[in-house]
Amino acid sequence: MKDLTIIIRNRNESQYIGFAIQSVIDFFPNSKIIVIDNDSKDDSLKVVSLFQNIIPIEVLNINKYSPGLCLNYAIKSVKTKYLLILSAHAQIT
Question: How far is 79 from 70, CA to CA, in rounded Å?
C-alpha cells in the first residue's frame, strides 16, 4: 500500500527487529518503513542495515528521549495518508 507508512519503534531489540521488518515486507510490500532507534546499544541497527540493502528503510536516531517524544517526532515526518505504529517485538500476522 503506497499510502501507508509504518513506524517501528526500537530500543535494544536486535533479536526481534528483523522479524518485525520482515512481517511488514510480507504484508505491506509497498509501504514506507521508518525505524525509530532510541539509543540502542545492541546490534539492532546492524540488523536494520541488512534490510536496507534490500529495501529502503528510513532510520531516525533519536537519543535520550522518552518513547512518546520519539514517536511524536517520527509522526511529524509522515506524509502518507495512513500510519501504522509497531513495536520492534511485534509482528503482523
Answer: 17
